Amino acid sequence: MRPLLRLSLSMLMALSVPALADVPNESIEADASTRQVAITSSFTGTEILVFGAVSNSTQPTPEAGTYDIIVVVEGISAPVTVRMKSRVGGIWVNTQSMRFASVPSYYAIASTRPVDEIADRAVLDAHGIGFDHVRMVRTSQSRTDATDPAEMQAFRQALIGLKKDEHVYVQSDFGVSFVGRSLFRATIALPPNVPVAPLTAHVFLFKDGKLLGQYDSRVMLQREGIERYIHETAMTRPLLYGVFTVLMAAGFGLTAAFAFRRPA
User: Fold this and answer.
1) Most CB contacts within 10 A, which of 110, 126, 185, 230?
2) How far is residue 199 from each of residues 67, 76, 236, measured CA to CA in Å?
3) Within the chain, what is the greatest distance between any pair of CA atoms?
4) Type and span of the H or E element at 218
5) What is the pTM of this model?
6) Distance between CA atoms of 76 and 195, rounded to whole angstroms?
């Protein structure tokens, strides 16, 4: 009787192991509402919708908070120089500067809650999530002490503050919302002065502080109409662009002179 009992138990264990192994893990699928944004002379800003779904979701309701979503829309990186002014002899002059070789030209972040509550600092640093964790590569040509982390942090915060004032660095701690058990959405605002360059939307899926998945998509910003023609002429034919600009300014000046001249 005992051998049959042992055989039955071993068969049950063998059947239960594949059943547990076949349980699929959660993953994420996402996309942007548009893949191309036209920049014209009348462009006053726009919004893009980032949406997606959690595959194999175990979240019972949208309000359960089982998952956390972070959406980061990032522009191409470009060099930036930050200068610090000091009062010398009663005059404000640039006394220190720090040059960053690579800084995102645009950075927008939206999340289901503050990012520092979603994951620890090591994970946020590894993926560049949040203003305190944005990748900023500094050059060796800066005139400040490279070994002073306090000055480095001060210049970082000053640069981020300037970007915020220009509305090209934006953050929404509760900008991502779940529509159902698995569907989510976030709206990202593009200001009128957004740099015309490709944008990359990074969507991260977290659960209990662990990164379960990531999905990336591209959004192209392109000049259209007269705006594109003027930009291409200025970049490819600078001499023609300069002559045309001078002639146009002279034409407007003569027109204004004849239109508003005083009678004799």
Assistant:
1) 110
2) 25, 7, 24
3) 127
4) strand 210-223
5) 0.75
6) 9
Distance set, CA 141 to CA 16, 97, 159, 162 (Å): 62, 10, 17, 22
Task: Please say whether the beta carbons of 83 and 94 come within 8 A.
Answer: yes
Count of CB atoms within 10 A of residue 108's CB? 27
- In the sheet that holds 27-32, the strands lie side by side as 27-32, 46-55, 183-190, 176-178
Residue showing tokens 């200001």 = 191
Q: Where are the domains of the chain?
A: 25-223
What single-letter amino acid sits at 229? Y
Q: Determine contact, residues 119/111, Cβ cutoff 8 Å.
A: no
pLDDT 10s per residue in the chain (264 long)? 444 444 454 444 444 444 444 556 889 999 998 888 888 878 889 999 999 999 999 999 988 889 999 999 999 998 988 888 777 777 887 778 888 888 999 999 999 999 999 999 999 999 999 999 998 887 765 554 445 678 888 888 999 999 999 999 999 999 999 998 899 999 999 999 999 889 999 999 999 999 999 999 999 987 766 555 465 556 666 766 676 677 777 777 777 777 777 665
Q: Enter the tokens of residue 148.
A: 């002073």
